[in-house]
Amino acid sequence: MKLINKLKNLPDSPGVYLMKNAKHKVIYVGKAKNLRHRVRSYFQRERGGRAYVEYLVRHVEDIDFVLTETEKEALILENNLIKQFKPKFNINLRDDKTFISIKLEVNAKFPSPKVVRQIENDGAMYFGPYASAKAVRETLRYIHDIVPIRKCPDTVFKKRMKPCLYYQIHKCLGPCCGLVDEVVYRELIDQVVLILKGKQDDLVKVLKQQMLEESKALRYEKAAKIRDRILAIEETVEKQKIHSMTFVDRDVFGYYLAGNEVWIEVMFIRSGNMEDIASYHFSVNHNAIEEIFRSFLNQFYSQTRFVPAEIIIPVESADSKLLEEWLTERKGKKIVVINPKRGDKVRLIEMAQKNAENAYRVSQTHGGDLALTLMTLKETLYLKQIPERIECFDISNISGKQAVGSMVTFEQGKPTKSRYKKFKIKTVGQIDDYAMMHEVLIRRYKRAVEEKDLPNLIIVDGGKGQMGVALKVFDELAIDNVDLVALAKGKKEISGLGEKAGEQIFVPHRSDPIVLAPSSPELLLLDKIRDEAHRFAVAYHRKLRRKEYYTSPLDEIPGIGIVRKKKLIRCFGSIEGIRSATIEQLVEIGKLPAKCATEIYQFFHKTESPTVKNTKQFE
């Protein structure tokens, strides 16, 4: 009776309604232009076969509502209440930290691209979004390779006294030491903006004009450097290019329904280039796809993120005009939400739909189809047995220093972290990845043979060379009942979604590598295992490097903490620089008290007893 009375007295006003179950828990939040019409429509006998409404209504015992002045206010309030209550029958988008952007402070004196997660109204230019840090790293690596702007962060830039190595190799013009003026550096920033906007063709025109001017002025060396930059840009100008009629910024959405689950894919297109792609997965709870997209889009753009000029969706949305108005107000420019019926935009949607289906296939690889994937691996790679337990190895070092090895274990296609092992290289002191791999494999399998603890399959990263090392270990330890494969990157291929390296799989006694389809579940599983081994090795290597950095002879001197140690290294460059310094230099350059400077000097010169001249002047 309470619910019936509320339905009779609903106002003809915009607002938000909260449906609750018998336990008074919010199970659905919705917004309406007219609360009376919208809420009562759920309880009408003829609902046109809307099965998801029938299912929802069966759980509703009470309804509360909040009045708003406008439908736009209701839209914003709906998003906030969904985040607050996390209702069972709403999709709940939780990706506040998923996307990162590149920030360029164009109003700063000598700006450099930065990676940020929040877009602010601070006068800077923002580019993206990027769904992964890898995509950002590739973009910044390309920029720093093409344009000689500074690479160092602000903290280092402000304190640097002399140019770094990048200046010596002509990858930076040395703004830290006043070796380039603001006008020239501003031209470089304009070039960076063109790259980030995907306008490499315009940049090539600018550079060709500069090259011509340098050549006319007989500055042939500078002209040659500009020529090399032009060639580098032209080689990559087609990378990730989507051939569309216009070069507006777009977000393109696609979806794939499988049972009670939906996968939504977003392609971020900026100036005709595919910048990145992101995938989302939800339980639909009997919701219609139109309702799913309505709620998803509202939540997606309620986050602090870049808003493109066009939003292309695969279904009609009841809120498309409202969303256009709201986003146009936020952006300060006209935003359109389009559900295309023909033309190039339909083909973009088809591409997003295919990617959504592929995201579903990948998820199945890591779920119920793992047993089938392992069986297929056995047949495809000519293995002796099903690889129910896989051990994968990787090596990590810098110029042979702090060299480590890693081993990760996957059982039934899933990581078993309790079996992970890390190895600090003990017998190899130079750059020799093969010798390092040999040491790691011997140490691991000498004991494994004794304890009869061998896996079904061993994977090594590094192609034929590392496979030869592993086969040698097999001979030394008389291992003959374990399968072995080696992974290596092949030549890069250009596809519609960008440039991707083909994966080569080497197996013993076969001269040619096996190449699996890039999207095959078998290759995705192998890549996942190899990437996990690499991550584990790099993490251990970095840990040792940090430990080495923070360990020095200065630790043995009382009163020298981490802050003072960093300061001394920065001032004198190295431990040897500190060792060579006089007491007076330690006081003047290192800004140390005379007593502390004397202790440091005496520590490094224990056999000497120098006379300190007039130390009072330093106190």
From TrEMBL:
Asked whether the UniProt record includes Cytoplasm among its keywords, one would answer: yes
Q: What SMART domains has UniProt attached to this entry?
A: GIYc
Name a GO molecular-function annotation: excinuclease ABC activity
Function of the protein: The UvrABC repair system catalyzes the recognition and processing of DNA lesions. UvrC both incises the 5' and 3' sides of the lesion. The N-terminal half is responsible for the 3' incision and the C-terminal half is responsible for the 5' incision.
Give the gene symbol.
uvrC
Q: Which CDD domains match?
A: GIY-YIG_UvrC_Cho
Gene3D superfamilies according to UniProt: 5' to 3' exonuclease, C-terminal subdomain, GIY-YIG endonuclease, UVR domain, UvrC, RNAse H endonuclease domain
Assembly state and interactors? Interacts with UvrB in an incision complex.
Q: What GO cellular component is one of the record's annotations?
A: excinuclease repair complex
InterPro entries hit by this protein:
DisA/LigA_HHH (IPR041663), GIY-YIG_endonuc (IPR000305), GIY-YIG_endonuc_sf (IPR035901), GIY-YIG_UvrC_Cho (IPR047296), RuvA_2-like (IPR010994), UVR_dom (IPR001943), UVR_dom_sf (IPR036876), UvrABC_protein_C (IPR050066)
**Superkingdom of origin:** Bacteria
Q: Give GO BP annotations, semicolon-separated.
A: nucleotide-excision repair; SOS response
| Protein name in the entry | UvrABC system protein C
Please tell me the species this chain comes from.
Candidatus Brocadia sapporoensis
Every UvrC family homology region profile domain range: 252-474
Asked if the Swiss-Prot or TrEMBL record annotates the protein with the keyword Cytoplasm, the reply is: yes
Alphabetized UniProt keyword annotations: Cytoplasm, DNA damage, DNA excision, DNA repair, Excision nuclease, SOS response
